[in-house]
Specification:
Helix content: 40-55%
Radius of gyration: 22 Å
Largest sheet: 6 strands, mixed
Number of strands: 8
């Protein structure tokens, strides 16, 4: 096994445990398809888990499959950096929406995640809530043209937003015109269910906002940026969002 393959296998083993725990029964074919591996690789992963003490039972016959013993718990949760960022952003969104139902246990969860980051990231984590803005629900006109954002674009924007890094994006406007931009992803703005990126456009020297479902590609740049006053970004967005 190469050194580069180790993180991939460790991550896959955690995913495999989660899939087994979430379902009463699941077949090897279903697991291999969801994880994107061969049956042979899956069986090897199952043996590694069994050797490490994870109680995986195999039921033969119709309706059978693989399952974990019901009294077994997942234990310590391992998150990749990208997963931790996604979870922190989700918590910040819940905090911003001020929902008592969502906030009951989130403070404790957030403290545990924050503890996994180095001191240099603490300021960025504290700033997340202020950088997520929530407006009114999207209009019927906007929803009619809405489609789920591309996962690769979401990941690229989330990482750049958290790390205060500039990105190059390809954006398709409401007329279908594709433009290339270099932007500072300063704020995220939600008009349920539509997300907007409020950014400083470095090539045009101006505040701009972009519907995230219309971002086609995201390329990280080396340049970082400082957080700006949200007022001009919010004013620009609230004036023009309905035309998108």
């Amino acid at each position: 096994m190469t050194r580069r393959a180790i993180p991939s296998r460790l991550h896959r083993l955690e995913e495999l445990k989660g899939l087994l725990k979430a379902r009463e029964h699941v077949t090897a074919a279903e697991l291999s398809a969801e994880l994107g591996v061969s049956i042979r690789t899956l069986n090897r992963d199952l043996e590694i888990l069994r050797d490490s003490g994870v109680p995986i039972d195999s039921d033969r016959g119709r309706g059978g499959g693989l399952r974990l013993q019901r009294n077994w718990a997942l234990g310590r949760l391992h998150l990749s950096p990208a997963e931790a960022i996604d979870l922190l952003l989700s918590i910040a969104i819940a905090e911003r929406m001020n929902s008592p139902l969502l906030l009951q246990q989130l403070a404790a969860i957030k403290r545990k995640i924050v503890a996994a980051f180095s001191e240099s990231y603490q300021g960025k984590i504290r700033a997340l809530r202020k950088r997520i803005l929530v407006g009114a629900p999207a209009s019927e006109r906007v929803i009619a043209s809405f489609s789920p954002p591309q996962r690769s674009a979401l990941t690229g924007i989330a990482e750049a937003f958290f790390n205060t890094r500039c990105v190059a994006i390809e954006y398709v406007d409401q007329n279908g015109v594709v433009t290339s931009r270099e932007v500072e992803p300063q704020f995220l703005y939600l008009n349920v269910p539509v997300w907007y990126l409020l950014a400083w456009d470095r090539l045009r020297g101006a505040v701009r906002f972009f519907r995230i479902d219309r971002i086609r590609s995201v390329k990280p740049l080396q340049a970082s940026f400082r957080l700006a006053d949200p007022r001009p970004f919010l004013a620009e967005a609230e004036e023009g969002i309905e035309v998108l």
